[in-house]
Amino acid sequence: MTAPTEAAASVLAQVGAAATAALPLLPAVDPLTAGEPQVAPDTGGLVGQGVLASFSGAAQGQLLVAVSQDLVDALAQSPMGALDLTQALQPVAEAAAATLGAVVVEQGIPVPDLEAGLTALADSGDAAFVLLNDDTGVRALVGLLITAVTSTAAPGGPGGSGAPLRHGLDLLHGVEMDVTAELGQTRMTVRDLLSLIPGSVVELDRLAGSPADLLVNGRMIGRGEVVVIDENFGIRVTEIITPDSDRPQGGGP
After folding, report:
1. CATH for 187
2. What transmembrane ranges does the database entry give (predicted)?
3. Rounded CA gap, 206 and 212, in Å?
């Protein structure tokens, strides 16, 4: 067997650290364990989809995070509306890339064909991969390609172990979502928009003191009162909108 080059040996150590950093953020019902880093672009039988993100800074290259199809399906069938896989895995990619030093991770792009994605990454240079497993098999993987390095990072270690079948909603528990509060809306002509200056007042379609809408992924999930928390604005939820109807459920103050 041919010994790995110095560059290949380095990326093997670094992908191990990247996978360890990704483990706590990967949505999964059961804890995952990182396998041994490998240079072979092997999916280990994983059926699913991935996200490929480029990064730059202390190191430059690409990072691939892939998850099983049941998580992809759970995101698509979320009660809050279809959730984007690239957004769900962006925090995972950022945590993994942070083990390389101060880097900026670009928004990832979908990789629907895992085998082709892994092969393309391996053909682009010295890439390495780590399979993430539970007791049922491979549930995710992390791939790393480093094209330039200005500083190094120390490798890390693996996580825990797991058990039986998973349920769609349970898989979403660790996914970070963008939550926004909307005070109101209005419609304006282009002429009125162009006439806006500092000090202009835009009237919204909501009375003062009315509850604000709470939205996740652009879908309203509740309403609440605007409050101030340590000089920051917040929302005290007063109503929850059920997934199967627009009728609110009252909540406590």
Report:
1. 2.30.330.10
2. none
3. 9
Query: Domains in the chain: how many in total?
Result: 2
Q: Is residue 63, in this structure, part of any structural domain at all? A: yes
Per-residue pLDDT tens, the chain, 253 aa: give them. 445 566 667 888 899 999 999 998 887 778 899 999 999 889 999 999 999 999 999 889 999 999 999 888 888 887 667 788 888 899 899 999 999 988 899 999 999 999 999 999 999 988 999 999 988 899 999 999 999 887 544 444 333 333 333 445 566 666 667 788 888 888 888 788 888 899 998 888 877 778 888 888 777 888 888 888 887 888 888 888 876 544 444 444 4
Instruction: List the domain range (segments joined by +) for residue 205.
Output: 179-250
Residue 116 phi, psi dihedral angles, 5° rounding: -65, -40
Claim to verify: residue 124 and residue 22 sit in the same structural domain: yes
Q: For residue 1, tell me if it sits in a domain.
A: no
DSSP state of 231: T
Tokens coding 91: 């925090």
Give the burial class of 8: count Cβ atoms within 10 A of its Cβ; 0-12 exposed, 13-18 middle, 19 or more buried: middle
The answer to whether 31 and 134 are in contact (CB under 8 A) is: yes
Pairing of strands 212-216, 219-229: antiparallel
| Alpha carbon of residue 148 to chain centroid | 25
